[in-house]
């Protein structure tokens, strides 16, 4: 006869199903294992994301450092440029003042030259007026000279004509006088054989 088993005994009986608490323990251990695996996976994923974020932040930090250094160089360059601009402005102000003085002198010279040009134009106008008057006088003198030359030419022609007429009359009178002397000589020779000297020739008038 088989011995009876004590229901409170913790030893399992051969061929009997496992107690419920063992199954519960196994399920709990599986759940814990799954949770631990998921937690480990999540932790690894979070670690990877954290490393990626850290790398990105490191890159951003390096870029920010580079940008800050570049901005610092730009600020220094801007300061140098500002100083150069200020110096240039100071020099430009000095140059502007000198240029203003030169411009004032040039404007004064231009005013003097304009006055000289105005005076020169006035003198030119006066000279042109005198030239016109002189040309008018010259025209009058030219007309008077032409008239005098014409009168002198007419007088010369009248004189030549008068001289020619007087010469012709003198020649005719001389011819008549010679003829009269010759006739008188013949008559004397006929009247008296005594030779008589020739009479003195009359001066022609």
Outline of this structure?
The protein is 84% helix and 0% strand. The chain contains 1 helix and no strands.
Mean pLDDT across the residues is: 80
Count of alpha/pi helices? 1
Overall 3D form: rod-shaped
- Outline the biggest β-sheet: none
CA-atom Rg in angstroms? 78 Å
Helix-strand makeup class: mainly alpha
Unreliable stretches covering 5 or more consecutive residues: 1-10
**Proportion in β-strands:** under 5%
Could you give the count of β-strands?
A: 0
* SSE order, one letter for each helix or strand: H
Helix percentage range: over 70%
Distance between the termini: 231 Å
Describe this structure in words.
The chain is built from 1 helix and no strands. It is mostly helical and 205 residues long. The N and C termini lie far apart (231 Å). The relative contact order is 0.02. The model is unreliable at 1-10 (pLDDT under 50).
């Amino acid at each position: 006869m088989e011995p009876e088993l004590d229901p409170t005994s913790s030893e399992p009986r051969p061929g009997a199903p496992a107690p419920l608490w063992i199954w519960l323990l196994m399920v709990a251990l599986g759940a814990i294992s799954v949770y631990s695996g998921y937690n480990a996976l999540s932790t690894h994923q979070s670690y990877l994301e954290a490393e990626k974020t850290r790398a990105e932040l490191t890159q951003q930090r390096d870029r920010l450092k580079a940008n800050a250094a570049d901005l610092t160089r730009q600020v220094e360059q801007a300061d140098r440029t500002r100083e150069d601009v200020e110096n240039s402005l100071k020099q430009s102000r000095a140059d502007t003042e000198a240029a203003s003085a030169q411009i004032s002198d040039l404007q004064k010279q231009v005013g003097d030259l304009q006055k000289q040009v105005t005076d020169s134009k006035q003198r030119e106008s006066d000279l042109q007026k005198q030239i016109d008057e002189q040309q008018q006088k010259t025209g009058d003198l030219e007309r008077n000279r032409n008239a005098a030359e014409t009168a002198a030419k007419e007088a010369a022609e009248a004189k030549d004509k008068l001289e020619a007429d007087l010469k012709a009359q003198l020649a005719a009178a001389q011819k008549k006088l010679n003829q009269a002397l010759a006739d008188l000589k013949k008559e004397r020779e006929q009247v008296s054989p005594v030779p008589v000297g020739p009479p003195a020739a009359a001066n022609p008038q």
